[in-house]
Amino acid sequence: MNLLNGFGMDTITMAGTLEAKLAAMKQAGFSQVMLMARDLVTHPGGVPAAVKAVRDSGLRPTGFQVLRDFEGLSDHLHDYKVDIAKSMLQMCAATGSKVLLACSSTSRHASDDLDHIARDLKKLAMLAVPFGINIAYEALSWGRTVNEFPTSWDVVCRADCPNLGIGLDSFHIFAANTPLDAIEDLDPNKIFLVQLSDFMWHETPTFEERMTTARTFRVFPGEGVHSEALADLVLRLEHIGYRGDYSFEVFNDDYQQLPLETVAERARKSAMWLHEDVLHRAMPLPDWTTTHLR
Amino acid sequence: MTLKPAHREAIPEMPNRLGIEGIEFIEYATSRPQALGQVLENMGFKPVARHRSREVTLYRQGGMNLVVNASPDDARVSGSHDGQPVISAVAFRVRDALKAHSRCLELGAWTVQSHAQAMELHIPAIHGPGSSRFYFVDRWQEFSIYDIDFKPIPTVDQHPAAIAYMNYFGVVQYIGAGRSADWLAYYEHMFDFSFVPDDQRFGILPKGKLMKSPCGQFLWQLIEPDPWMDADESPECLQRIGLGATDVGAAVKALKERGVEFVESTQLHPEDRGALTRSALGSVSFELVHQDNAKA
Hints:
By secondary structure, chain A is α/β, with parallel strands linked by helices.
């Protein structure tokens, strides 16, 4: 058993080629990777070569990101987004990812009617059924209508569809100052992804500040000023029975110009902090206890 | 005061928003049409017509239409199953094919591009599990769709009777581990199939989850791999066809006389409730299921 099991990095954190990112993650001891569509389409060998690189790496895809501004649209805008969603689903399936991340809409052209939003997300989930893909719907802290996880959970409940759940992102929870008590209301089996990151400011009151910070200056769990709250969040998720993946969604301009090994090492330290200091997870059993079972 | 009877019991009405009225045809794709044809003929199906432009043959017995598609583009899907024939499509009879197709797309189905040639019928379709498709056919009462795309095989009876009054009873779909909830939701949302409680089962292979079509004419069975089948990551597919018969014993006897072999083990063997034919060509088997009111 690998101590880092259940934790993974996002390709967005590092610079370099997809192969180099995957190799650095693997070398640091990670066994899974959160993929970004851009990693596939910008690969010099095209999408098939990128898919092959992912499969050859042996890393399990945590999920695939990101479908933006999908829900709440009408007519030609809706049709256009459905087409985009279909292409994303096809790429997601090609990589073997079982989760597609869909972020709440920021578009002022989108409806704020939660039933309309739920209906569109159900359609997205139905499109995903033949591929065996789950949709993780995440509340962006600058989303127009849905910007906190209790609202994304409300929408998911309205849609009532087995392969539609929520994605949680600690950054957005802290940026929007969402009380963590609402975690108790979630069904752990409908949390399809948890993305973790922190940042260095205590307050991000405006959408603009949230966006800038989210896109340039996130840090790994344990490195920012919300470590206590992040530990609290993870423990609450464990408490309600969440046993899924944690992925480090760390957009950081500094990390983009550091050697990949250095960044991956920071991620490893972060995972160890969560594993040992926060979750107090048990050490794996020594090999001899399991070998006789084989 | 009114003399109109009030609704004294809360009997839910089964919605049937596509107007599904049974199965029009089931299609196999194969690169070995002759070998499959032989298996089908043993089962009582007769070749009655050939497609005008493609290597497609229509087989029939009683009310059951079965299409064997060996057209190279379509037969290719069987290549991903070690060259074994695969159930590549199920066509539903619906009230209005275009409306049914549009509604499914609105709900999140993937459309299938038509490859109809000039003067051929364009049958709207959506993608099903694995490489399969679902077609929507609305012209099944006034005239036959086969009159347009198919030429009858001369001297052959176009309406051969079914052995022991067999008819389409249902389809068995193999699904991935933990996927029952997804597919149950999909079929309920898309086709208004309804869930059949676990204590209601038919035939001798009761595993998995069962759904009923809104017209009540056929069943849909979803089977996950067993928990101990860790390595079973085979693609999802339409696995076999269920045939309903009022007298399973008589059907088994008649089919045995035609050379059909049945699975006969201590756990699984022909009995009054049902029977399973031995798999032919690696993948083709039929399940017989006892039915009280089989249609002639």
